[in-house]
């Protein structure tokens, strides 16, 4: 017999229940959130309006910055608003929407990072066939497939969440709605559901991370045939991508591929990959890339 859910809203406990700490949290994360939006907006507008940044690498950076901004948008505004409000309530429909958007843009980031690796592989290991392998039409098709894959992944999360009956106490020990914290107010045994979550999100993160790292080992090994200058440029590009991969995947693996237990430190790890990482991505790509900095300076000086 199916159990009907008696919950119309959830109470988010947030990062802390200390009022003073909550005020500090709201100010800190407001600046981090605004910085994330500003950085990614600058990169998106620079790549879109600069003819010199028309290569496939910048095409994928454009979508990574877009996904970063949207990914931060799914959690940061709620965290900031709840830090200054007395009742941290979120309706059932808003909670489901947040889960969908969070997993959609998070998975989109994963797929864009994989596409960026594919671009680096073709440029370094197949330089002669590069323009044929990574053409403009191919890039467009790959990004469309990434959007479709993200939609399928998030839809699977929502279908799983909608099958869970909830009852009081309707408290979620987190600062946003996600699948594992959402299992606490469930009225049924969630062991199998938790396994499905780990198998879905955890496996995606773990397998993608390991494949990317192993593949980069082969790419770096192939640089021995390059000149000193060519090796330096390739290493600079690959290093930036590897840093971004580690920053994004390691916290995600800890959250989604760990044993079926929620620890207090999980919320701080979630803060890192939902708020801090989208802030760091643009800094890593732009500070190490002279072309982006030059195009950004030229474009925005002309605008001013």
UniProtKB/TrEMBL annotation:
Putative odorant or sperm cell receptor. It holds the Pfam family 7tm_4. It comes from Bison bison bison. GO terms for molecular function: G protein-coupled receptor activity; olfactory receptor activity. The gene is LOC104995135. This is Olfactory receptor 4C11-like. It is a multi-pass membrane protein. The chain crosses the membrane at residues 24-45, 57-80, 100-118, 191-220, 241-262, 268-287. GO terms for cellular component: plasma membrane. The lineage of its organism: Eukaryota, Metazoa, Chordata, Craniata, Vertebrata. It is found in: Cell membrane. Belongs to the G-protein coupled receptor 1 family. InterPro entries: GPCR_Rhodpsn (IPR000276), GPCR_Rhodpsn_7TM (IPR017452), Olfact_rcpt (IPR000725), Olfactory_Receptors (IPR050427). Keywords: Cell membrane, G-protein coupled receptor, Membrane, Olfaction, Receptor, Sensory transduction, Transducer, Transmembrane, Transmembrane helix. Residues 39-285 form the G-protein coupled receptors family 1 profile domain.
